[in-house]
UniProtKB/TrEMBL annotation:
The lineage of its organism: Bacteria, Pseudomonadati, Pseudomonadota, Alphaproteobacteria, Hyphomicrobiales. The keyword Signal applies. It comes from the Bacteria. Keywords: Signal, TPR repeat. InterPro entries: TPR-like_helical_dom_sf, TPR_rpt. The keyword Signal applies. This is Tetratricopeptide (TPR) repeat protein.
Amino acid sequence: MRILFAFLAIFLVSGAVALPARADDQATAPAAPDAPPPVMTKQAHLDQLFSDLKRERNEKAAERIAGNIWSEWFQSGSASIDLMMMWSQKAIEGQKFDVALDFLDQVVTLQPTYAEGWNRRATVHFMMKNYGKSMSDIDHTLQLEPRHFGALSGLAQIMALTGHKQSALEAWQKVLAIYPMMRSAQDQVATLSEELAGEGI
């Protein structure tokens, strides 16, 4: 079964150009002319992205928004954590899962509030078929970021692989409540609904 659990982030860089104020605006403006513009917090930016993601009905546009959300999630705020996450990714790509786990154990120990560290470790456990450990890390991820559609997708896959179709369906439905245009989630909801209906559940 193809792993839908890990996603590639799309990094988009945007810049805004400030226009000079008109002379009459400067005369009436109470703020200092060189006051910096208000900066949106990371949480406020994420909230806006999730709001956009929920409303977007174009699949490609929704994918771009989801990519921006992943970009935000990947930012740990620590150079050393970022480095260990990079090393863990290289280890995963080389199928060196034990090495990846060593790095990720350090990540979640040093920065336990970093949701993506838990999610990355959940992904590695999933790839190693350590489903119990993966679910534990998914739980940590969702406590820190309940809207983590990647972690919910992983949970749904584990439920399906272990024969819990109803729980898998419910997890995919949660994904769609957050990210309505995720094609894989749409397909899984349709498939599981049909299977459960056929089983009389």
